[in-house]
Amino acid sequence: MLESVVRRPQRLLFALIAFMVVLFFTTYLSLSSWGSEQVRTHFETLKAAFNKNATQAAVHAQNEIASTISIGGQPSQAFMDGIKTIDDLRKYAVKGEDGNLYPPTFVPSEVNKLPRAKAGFIVLVRNNELEDMRKSMRDVEDRFNRKYGYPWIFLNNEPFTEEFKQGVKKMTRSEVRFGFIGPEMWGYPDWIDQTRAAESRKKMAEEGVIYGWSESYRHMCRFQSGFFWRHNLTMDLDYYWRVEPGIQLFCDLDYDPFVFMELNDKKYGFTISLHEYVKTIPTLWDRTKEFMKMHPDYLAKDHALHFMTDEPERLLEPGYNMCHFWSNFEIADLRFWRGQKYTEYFDYLDKAGGFFYERWGDAPVHSIAAVLFLNRSQIHHFNDIGYFHGPWTHCPLNRPKFHDNGKCLCNPEDSADYNDFMCMKEWWRTSIEGDPNQRS
Ligand SMILES: Nc1nc2c(ncn2[C@@H]2O[C@H](COP(=O)(O)OP(=O)(O)OP(=O)(O)O)[C@@H](O)[C@H]2O)c(=O)[nH]1
Ligand SMILES: [Mg+2]
Asked: Tens of pLDDT along the chain (440 residues)?
């Protein structure tokens, strides 16, 4: 080797020049991410030009441009600044398989650089609900999440099928997680008398109580009350939006509701409130009273009890009017459930056995906790989120604000807000904001 260099010293010169070129090139790439992106982009475009399968490569190049536009802060800005006219854009256009030029695509959630909350969508769902799940996702993505890219977390007490996983993954560009719920979160605690539980189901079936007869429904309500907020797939989140299969959203959400929660120190958000069936929770209020006797200091200073009784000054004494927030939709703070007050409250209820001996739903359980432990100002009615979960619809009533401008697509006359089965009147008399429809 050394001998050959000595025989021809010009080889040394070549090697030195080659070394300098490599050094210059790598320094440029490492110092300028914009530079590397450009090189990558042009490389891909070049590849596309030479590649026999030009369309596929062009699409790939287009994806590269998409990430060039959207990823990386400053370079994206520089890139955007460099494109002022459609002719500027022309050099990044790609040829589709139909032979036409297509402008580069971009990912809206990546272009939106606003800070995000630690949040995601939490969905408890069964494999056979795939189609309804995809419909719900389509609405959530269209109305909000496409621009924000919050993750989806799917939980199930059975393993998700490959069909389900692929089916929901296709509906979003966000991260998607699939979690299994083990028997410690979905099953009978050892203090529960299962014979008594079965008798209660039989009785409710005879009395025609809706869903009262189903064993899995009771596990579901217990899971939604006591466990989703401490499942290992949700532990990195502060806020969540609960989504169910088969729901619909009617209005564009042009702001980030999780950031809204954080900005205003809100802990619980809902769209619909209504009355619970008395037969499903005959002793829930009594158990709650016992718990509050043991912990009178847990009552919030500016609690929202007026939502649940006509005489809030007598605290829990007047009894429960059955009003609750409909928990199939929730935007809330997971740290509220993880906190000492709610954790102890849930444990107390769980020991009392009412999830199995009656049919305590997660909706009244969540609602009672929110009303007692939170200040009124920490509970929020998302009047601007038009929502359907069979059989009820909430559609904002204010036409100039929500309809004439094209924001919502629903009929205010379908809105259940003033229906007698609803509890919006009770909420508006309680809340600081009052009835939004009475505001000018
Ligand atoms: N994994 C799993 N999810 C369930 C089970 N039962 C209910 N769910 C989910 O729990 C949520 C509530 O159940 P639903 O059956 O919708 O109950 P509901 O909202 O009271 O009644 P519907 O009028 O049927 O919507 C939904 O997201 C369901 O997909 C179950 O046994 N396993
Ligand atoms: Mg449902």
From this structure: 555 555 666 766 676 777 666 655 555 444 443 334 444 444 444 344 334 344 444 444 444 444 444 433 444 667 778 889 999 999 889 999 999 999 988 899 998 999 999 999 999 999 999 999 999 999 999 999 999 999 999 999 999 999 999 999 999 999 999 999 999 999 999 999 999 999 999 999 999 888 778 999 999 999 999 999 999 999 999 999 999 999 999 999 999 999 999 999 999 999 999 999 999 999 999 999 999 999 999 999 999 999 999 999 999 999 999 999 999 999 999 999 999 999 999 999 999 999 999 999 999 999 999 999 999 999 999 999 999 999 999 999 999 999 999 999 999 999 999 999 999 999 999 999 999 999 86
Please name each of the domains of the chain with its CATH number.
2-111 (no CATH), 119-438 (3.90.550.10)
Among 186, 213, 243, 244, which residue has the most ligand 1 atoms within 8 Å of its CB, making it the best to mutate?
A: 244
Rounded to whole angstroms, the Cα distance separating 322 from 281 reads 9
Nearest ligand 1 atom, CA 129: 29
Q: Using a 6 Å CB cutoff, which residues line ligand 1? A: 124-126, 129, 156-157, 211, 216-217, 220, 244-245, 328, 390
Contacts 24+ apart (CB under 8 A), 211-217: 211/359, 212/279, 212/280, 212/359, 216/157, 217/359
Catalytic residues: 330
Write out the DSSP string of 115-157: ---SEEEEEE--GGGHHHHHHHHHHHHHHTGGGT---EEEEES
Q: Output the residue whose Cα is nearest ligand 1's atom 3.
A: 125
Residue whose token pair is 């600044």: 81
Task: Find out whether 59 and 66 touch, Cβ atoms under 8 Å.
Answer: no
Q: Is 72 helix (H, G, I), strand (E, B) or coil?
A: coil
Closest ligand 1 atom, residue 157 Cα: 1
| CB-based contact 116:150 (threshold 8 Å) | yes
Q: Which residue has its alpha carbon closest to ligand 1 atom 10? A: 124
| Maximum CA extent, the chain | 106
C-alpha–C-alpha distance, residues 20 and 27, integer Å: 11
Q: How big is the CA angle at 148 (ends 389 and 117), to the nearest 5 degrees? A: 90
- Counts for the chain of helices (H) and strands (E), in that order: 19, 14
Ligand 1 atom closest to 155 (CA): 1
